[in-house]
Design goal:
It contains 13 helices and 20 strands. It has 673 residues and is of the alpha/beta class. Strand 1 and strand 2 form a beta hairpin. It is globular. The chain binds S-adenosylmethionine. S-adenosylmethionine (SAM) binds next to strand 12 and strand 17. It holds the Pfam family SET.
């Protein structure tokens, strides 16, 4: 008795049958694909058996040499599976190089439809391990310009497809399809980036370009494409996704840069797009290099000189694989991973550092100066707060009362039907959603408190530590402090696990961030390399924990050698004491020791991140964490900004205010030129 057939095989057959392909035709292809993919059904089942159907049709296409028909097309009147797989109009059977004959149906599909589909699928398959063979098949289609039909298919030969798939899986170097120019008759395509193509005509063939379709007229009769020469790939370049390039470009050339307006030039605009493609591909290459580095301290040959001995900028020699290392996890060794120094379009050296955290964070955080000329930041990277000297921060389990933790919880507190004791301070509701975002309500109230402080409760110290620091003998009256909303996270004495949804900030940075040199006279800034949803945790403000007195003294002594970051006052709970001791009146300063948050620039009012007080390890709220969350969805490559809450008219503030160039229409700096 024959053994039962694997149900996955039956499913594949019936999926193909629904496309009009008989089991006999599917069998040999499926067998070969299974072998090719090492019996990994995932690849075959993916996208409703796309790979299988493609292999059938594409191989068939490859072998056909009949003439194409031209004619009008109505792409929308066909069901999706037909649109996806139909090729060119029908012709009757023909023979070509021993390939068995396909007999095509009467329905006529004009060649322009083929072209449109080719370009579309060439984009969608980028990054797909199978896409290379797709490119190959596409090349064959374009070269042969054969009439390609869909059904019924009598037979075909898979040997070439299978061989090529195998070959290309082993060969890691990128494959290139033909550029979209020079396609068959009846189809006009224009490459606005043809300069390079023409320049290289003598030595390189059109095969040497990776093509991205940018825009096309209806049904693809006219296409604007971007062609990237393959030699780029050999020069520390990673083929980027076009959508990401466009986002990158929008960030790099904001509207204010005359990219639109009376100065607008389409050609210049497109040139910028090409340059952005090159730059972005280089960034990606750098990031992939980070992951592949055998050690974390390979360094570059370029970069400005520095003068702070506490920061170890290791030997600037790419080939010096055993470069110096600070040896201490406290001091930052800015790690540079760049195979080859690169210059930007102005001839200035591009500086890239693969991980400014020196491995102290869970994720690498890169630094990129593509403008050139700025000194590298001068500080010591610390992933967590660290006491400078006199601050009183007492962390002990004994201080955590039973009612301040959830020792009887197990697993994830958010999944429990009754919120645990840790949600008490947020009125019995957790501040986080199960997705790890701030709840709408909590976020809304934080934003409201920040933007309309006058509408919220303020308290006034009897003896304000801030004023005391300025003048111990005759302090001025307290100017008021907001009593802010806290998040209280579960911690060590709680019974839940680290995966508990009420432990977000303590798990550290998880998003892809990058320090970059802004082009708006703000110095370095921080941006996200991935899209962030509203309410997402970005990073904590980590720095030295100082008493306000220490901060005041520090600022008085400051020589101006260091660019000051903005200290954060931990005054959200000062209302709970009548008179606060100096060692309990704390603040955070990231000027000398800090984490990535020290690069977040200020934006008046409509910044995209907000600071939230978070209690983690001590119920004593003289000390707590400051965590940054997004106020709205933030696009990839958008700069992260925070409203420092500066009063630009307060000339007595311990840190002298800068001239604000935040660009916000609500900018509060009235004194700038
Ligand atoms: C916390 S640091 C931010 C990182 C800083 N841009 C750097 O290069 O290290 C604060 C300093 O950045 C600069 N800065 C931040 N926001 C700015 C803004 N909106 N306009 C001008 N300068 C700004 C000021 O020099 C400020 O003292």
């Amino acid at each position: 008795m024959a053994p039962d057939r694997d149900p996955r095989i039956s499913k594949a057959f019936s999926a193909m049958k629904s496309m009009g392909i008989t089991t006999e035709r599917v069998k040999p292809v499926l067998k070969r694909l299974l072998k090719l993919y090492d019996w990994n059904w995932e690849h075959i089942e993916e996208g409703n058996y796309r790979a299988l159907a493609d292999a059938i049709f594409e191989d068939a296409d490859d072998k056909l040499t009949n003439e194409k028909n031209d004619g009008p097309i109505n792409c929308d009147s066909e069901p999706p599976c037909k649109k996806q797989h139909r090729r060119l109009p029908n012709v009757t059977s023909t023979k070509d190089n021993g390939i068995k004959i396909l007999e095509l149906e009467e329905d006529k599909i004009p060649q322009s439809s083929n072209r449109t589909r080719l370009v579309e699928s060439s984009q969608s398959s980028l990054g797909d391990p199978r896409s290379e063979s797709h490119h190959h098949v596409r090349q064959a289609q374009v070269q042969n310009r054969g009439p390609l039909g869909r059904e019924p298919i009598r037979d075909y030969n898979f040997e070439n497809v299978i061989k090529d798939r195998k070959k290309k899986h082993i060969n890691c170097s990128p494959q290139f399809s033909l550029p979209t120019s020079n396609v068959g008759p009846g189809l006009v395509e224009t490459s606005l980036f043809s300069d390079e193509l023409e320049k290289n005509n003598g030595s390189d063939s059109a095969h040497d370009y990776r093509t991205h379709n940018i825009a096309s007229s209806t049904c693809g009769r006219v296409i604007v494409s971007l062609n990237c020469h393959h030699t780029l790939v050999q020069h520390n370049f990673h083929i980027p996704n076009l959508d990401d390039v466009l986002k990158f470009m929008e960030t790099k050339y904001p509207r204010s840069d005359n990219i639109v307006g009376s100065e607008f030039s389409l050609v210049k605009f497109l040139k910028k797009l090409c340059e952005s493609y090159v730059e972005f591909g280089a960034i990606l290459a750098d990031r992939s290099l980070i992951n592949n580095l055998p050690y974390n301290d390979i360094h570059q040959t370029s970069g400005p000189k520095r003068d702070n001995p506490r920061i170890d900028y290791p030997a600037r020699d790419v080939d010096n694989k055993v470069a110096s290392h600070s040896g201490s996890s406290d001091s930052v060794a800015l790690v540079v991973a760049q195979r080859k120094p690169m210059n930007n379009s102005n001839g200035k050296r591009v500086v890239r550092i693969s991980d400014i955290t020196n491995g102290t964070e869970k994720v690498s955080i890169s630094l990129l100066d593509e403008i050139g000329g700025e000194d590298l930041p001068n500080f010591t990277y610390v992933p967590e707060n660290i006491i400078y000297q006199s601050a009183y921060v007492h962390v002990s389990l004994a201080r955590i009362a039973d009612e301040d933790c959830c020792s009887s919880c197990v697993g994830d507190c958010l999944s429990s039907s009754v919120p645990c004791a840790c949600a008490r301070d947020t009125r019995g509701e957790f501040a986080y959603t199960p997705e790890g975002l701030l709840t709408e309500e909590f976020l809304r109230s934080c934003i409201s408190m920040k933007q309309q402080p006058q509408e919220h409760y303020q308290f006034f110290c009897q003896d304000c530590p801030l004023e005391r620091a300025k003048n111990a003998y005759s302090p001025e009256k307290c100017k008021g402090h907001l009593e802010r909303k806290f998040i209280k996270e579960c911690w060590r004495k709680c019974g839940c696990k680290m995966i508990c949804g009420n432990r977000v900030v303590q798990r550290g940075i998880s998003r892809k961030l990058q320090v970059f040199l802004t082009n708006q006279s703000k110095g370095w800034g921080l941006r996200t390399l991935e899209e962030l949803p509203k309410g997402a945790f970005v990073c904590e403000y980590a720095g030295e924990i100082l008493t306000n007195m220490e901060l005041y003294e520090r600022n008085k002594r400051s020589t101006g050698k260091y660019k000051h970051t903005y200290p954060v006052l931990l005054d959200s709970d000062w209302c709970s004491e009548n008179i606060l001791n100096d060692e309990d009146a704390l603040c955070l300063d990231a000027t000398y020791y800090g984490n990535v948050s020290r690069f977040i620039n200020h934006r008046c009012f409509d910044s995209n991140v907000i600071e939230v007080p978070v209690q983690v390890e001590t119920p004593d709220r003289h000390y707590y964490h400051i965590a940054f969350f997004t106020k709205r969805k933030v696009d990839a490559y958008e700069e992260l900004t925070w409203d420092y809450g500066i009063d630009f008219d307060d000339h007595n503030h311990p840190v002298k205010a800068f001239r604000c160039s935040c660009g916000s229409e609500y900018c509060r700096d009235n004194g700038k030129k």
